[in-house]
Amino acid sequence: MLGRELETLLKEERGQFFEFISAFEQKKRGTQTKRPRDLAREIARILDGMVNADGGVLLVGVEPDKSLTGLPYSEPEIRELGEVPQSLLNPPLPSLHERIDIGNLLLLRFEVSPGLEIRRVANGRTFYRIASENPAVSPEQIRLLKDAKLSYSYERQHIHDAAWEDLDDAALESFAERVGAQEDPRSLLARTYHLVRGPMERPEISMAALLLFAAEPTRWHPRCGIDFVKYEGTERNYGESLNVVKRVRIDRPLWTLVDEAVGRIKEHIRERMVLHDLFFRERLEYPSFAWQEALVNAVAHRDYGITGAGVELWMFEDRLEVRSPGALPAPVAVDHLNRRQRVHFSRNPLLVRVLSDLGYMREIGEGVPRMFQEMEHNALRPPEFSTDGFFFTVTLRNTPIYDDETLRWLDHFDRSRLGPRQQRLLVYALSHDKLLSTADYQRVAEVDRDTAYRDIRGLVKMGILAPIKPKSRTYRVVEPI
User: Fold this and answer.
1) Tell me: the pLDDT tens digits for 365-394?
2) pTM reported for the whole predicted model
3) Which residues make beta-bridge pairs with 205?
4) CA 61 from chain center: how many Å?
5) Within 10 A of 318 (CB to CB), how many other CB atoms are there?
6) What is d(CA 428, CA 351) in angstroms, rounded to the nearest whole number?
7) What architecture is the 3-136 domain classified under in CATH?
8) Would you give the DSSP letter of residue 190?
């Protein structure tokens, strides 16, 4: 690896596809060198998580602040570290490590692709990478992951009659420039993203490469785009009552599909007037992050093996529905999403890697929880998730949780400082003579006593609540003057 390539890599932050670790650790006596076997187990856990998820790159010999400190070991010990994928993973993983010499320092670079089978650390547990973490997974989760990985095959299939000429050279050049790559774009697709294999003069082009960069993507998949339909009213009507106001079909290579779709759809996202600080402010009827995250996830995680349907975005007067072909893959359930759990599974890890590097999926594992936050911050109902036939649907409603008068009253307290539970607490107090108790809060917010006490104390510290008398568990609302 050239120094310039290493510099580019180190500009990345820890995440789904990149990790770096040091050969040193801080102890009471100061900085000490890790024992080689301890570092080997650490390498094994990270690589195990990556190969079971979406693949990725691990650099060994880098400090948390990204300074380079190298590997202070003997040559036999370094060889053993390089052989970790074979010696400590079960089944063994072909080694894809590279030695990097920077001056008098030596680093190791490991790269793994998403595996079709589940691996575990020898004599240990199985790990799965989510964002920058590598949690261990349970036997039941392992079973579900094995079943879900059966769907990996579609994007990985190599199309025998596809050639370099079927990919858009200008698109490949632009992509390489956008991700900051220094190498030839064709080599980038083969070596970094594993979208192409075989000799460069007669390559085997994957379906993922064609979906992403084909000059004519619909030649390879008839419904790989996005269908946007805007309806009049709140229901779909047919026949003589057909209520379609606008219909747009967007067919582009996936690497530009999201930008094109967002540009075409956002024109139809209306603005609503909200009173804030005695002035009316314009606010979009749907938070941009929420609907765009739902759209990106639909493109990235849909089942492309279903060729008779595309991603659909239906717009009604009261809601948006983002519909993705294919049910949720088994490790992820609707219940997990409704509980705002940090969950992640890529049905299409090759596509996800590219879309992530393009900046569309920077918050892997965090997107759904943030959708909830954005909707709540805008006083809108939380996102809804459902499965209908072979479609998975995310529904966003533009109906506020509270009426306009209540929202204006909440704005007196600088609503941006308040969590959704605290807002519910104040709304409850508003309808009860502006008084409430800890027990009221526990019941209304459905929280335990410790959480109720913590949230109420936060409102007391902000000067929004005050006990009606010393040591009382009943509080009154203190309205701003």
Assistant:
1) 788 888 988 887 777 888 999 998 889 999
2) 0.76
3) 159, 196
4) 28
5) 12
6) 47
7) 2-Layer Sandwich (3.30)
8) I
